[in-house]
Amino acid sequence: MTLFEQDSYALRSNPxxxxxxxxxxxxxxxxxxxxxxxxxxxxxxxxxxxxxxxxFRPSEAVSSLIASSQLTDEGRFIFLASKPVIESSTVFASSxxxxxxxxxxxGCYLPRDRSIHLFAVTEPRLAGLTDVVAxxxxxxxxxxxxxxxxxxxxxxxxxREASKLEGDPAFQARLDYYAKNEPGQRDNELHSIIGTExxxxxxxxxxxxxxxxxxxxxxxxxxxxxxxxxxxxxxRSAELSESMDALRAAISDEYAxxxxxxxxxxADIRRFNARTDFTSKRQADMVKGTLETRRTSLDAxxxxxxxxxxxxxxxxxxMTALSKQTDGLNIALNHGPAxxxxxxxxPATGGG
Length: 352
Known about the structure:
This protein is mainly alpha-helical. It has 3 domains: 15-55; 57-214; 235-333. It has helices at 2-42, 44-55, 60-68, 73-81, 89-95, 129-145, 148-163, 169-181, 186-197, 203-209, 216-274, 281-325, 330-333, and strands spanning 85-87, 107-110, 115-119. The protein has a 3-stranded mixed beta sheet with strand order 1-3-2. Helix 2 (44-55) packs across helix 4 and helix 6 (129-145) crosses helix 9 (186-197). The relative contact order is 0.08.
């Protein structure tokens, strides 16, 4: 009995090796077919994104941003697949030139290498702005991965929301800018703007954005809060600039009038001192009194010039403080050439 079992075992040894090989081949083929199926289902870009997410090492600042963002798991996936970086003003300026697609000076998505670049906002009052910009740029990255059919299905939904904002000058100005500087990107921009800035949208779009944005309304509220600070700084900067322009012009005109007035007064004083035709001391005192009144008036004008100069330089100090408070954002707040302090005007000297 034992020998039979041993003989039987020995006789089955070769077939068993063949059967093991027979089982391996179908398994490998099955895995190949599964891999091919996954590739066909997900597509090359998704697999490339997955590899990028696995291998990309975000900075501490980017990791902190992801933790505080309103992105879903899918939103974080697309964000990380875009190799996001937060850059200082110098580096950012070279990454996101003004003629490239992006969100002003705060962020940009570069389709050529599918990367996201964010400006390092350090102003405390703008805390949270980077979260909004990150979501904005992530939606650009998502749009870049949509098929043409998917984009075309979204266009009428986006345009319907855009038509509701036709009376909003700021919104229309942005669309005009994109039409001029980024032709063909209108719906791409609408997709990011509407998703992160417009509170009330259609249920269809709400369902669409829910795939990437976990709390879209909170993101919109955050955008409104930080935008109010940003526009407030911009408004104050514009007010200061306008005030300083008016003060500079007034100081220039008044000082020219002051110096010419003093030159004329000095000439009249010299003539008064040379006169010998006064018939009485009273007549001479009257003329002298008139000259002194003119001197007093000119001195008061000089005091006003000094006050305006101090006001101008005070406005400049405030504008400089605004620029420092907003760090690199002064690029957006201050347009035109740099301004400098006005030297204290030299007083005219009186003769006589």
